[in-house]
Design brief:
alpha/beta, eight-stranded mixed β-sheet, 40% helix, Rossmann fold, 17% strand
């Protein structure tokens, strides 16, 4: 295990002009972190299952130089509205539409990690006119591996039932190639979310996609990927716990305008684990400066 200097969310944000707030997006009170000039193109960062906007604290500054950046909490997650029903991909898609409408944006650049990538891909398929470019970062929704699903469900529900330091830490360590990346500050940030009185029921709702039958009817099929015309970058990692690099390559090859970037020595949060590499690849792609290929 590598030794890392202590970091906190405030270390990541102390040079960033940003705001935290809540946006009434249709029926959904959506919590966000915002940075950048509202006159710039809109970029939405979307986290993974049981995640939250802080997944992108290390990416706000670099992207705010070029974009109007919002890192959101999905419904059922973070501090956003927590519906009292199982959450499936169409519910998250509706939230994204409501966010764009509330911000008065005809279109946006969408970048999603895990669940966020799953939602972003479906959104680009359904509403191509509203998506400028698409980044699918270790995306979910193309695989249904029972072992991965069971592990994710167990870690998440154990932490929801008992948001102790060790259980929350274990859930976060699943994300990282190097468990030492999980700092005390990150644990406490997520623990505070998991300690909310409504979190256990919310977690049951957002775990719906770990149920095999529910997952199957929400999955992104090969034909779905072939139908996405939006220019897309697939980011995968050499140590992703959800699936091998070959899956990222397969997704990129199925997308008509897809390309692949592979990040070494990262797990499920490459935007956090190797921020400088991620920001370079990501911005090169979004700004059309290069292919974004890091492999």
């Amino acid at each position: 295990m590598t030794s890392h200097p202590y970091t906190s969310v405030w270390n990541d944000l102390n040079q960033v002009e940003f705001s935290q707030g809540f946006l009434q997006a249709g029926p959904y009170r959506t919590r966000y972190l915002h940075a950048g000039d509202p006159a710039n193109p809109l970029l939405l960062f979307m986290h993974g299952i049981t995640g939250h906007a802080e997944a992108y604290v290390r990416n706000l500054q670099a992207h705010a130089e070029h974009f109007n950046v919002y890192a959101i909490d999905f419904i059922g997650h973070g501090y956003s509205t927590k519906p009292d029903h199982p959450l499936e991909i169409p519910h998250y898609v509706d939230q994204v539409t409501a966010i764009l409408d509330a911000l008065g944006a005809d279109s946006a650049y969408l970048s999603g990690e895990s669940l966020g990538g799953w939602v972003a891909a479906r959104y680009a398929q359904l509403y191509p006119e509203r998506v400028e470019k698409l980044v699918l970062n270790t995306m979910g929704g193309t695989m249904a591996n029972p072992n991965v699903m069971e592990r994710l469900y167990t870690l998440s529900m154990e932490a929801a039932k008992d948001p102790s330091w060790e259980r929350v830490k274990a859930r976060l360590e699943w994300l990282m190639a190097d468990p030492a990346m999980v700092t005390d500050d990150l644990i406490r940030t997520r623990q505070a979310i998991f300690e909310q009185p409504d979190w256990l029921e919310a977690c049951k709702s957002n775990m719906a996609l770990q149920d095999l039958e529910t997952r199957k009817r929400n999955m992104i099929s090969d034909d779905d990927l072939r139908s996405i015309e939006t220019e897309a970058l697939v980011i995968w990692t050499t140590k992703d716990p959800s699936g091998p690099v070959d899956e990222g390559r397969r997704i990129a090859e199925l997308l008509p305008n897809g390309s692949l970037a592979v990040m070494d020595e990262c797990g499920h949060w490459p935007q956090y684990e190797d921020t400088s590499t991620f920001n370079r690849i990501h911005l090169d792609f979004l700004l059309g400066r290069a292919t974004g290929d890091a492999s």
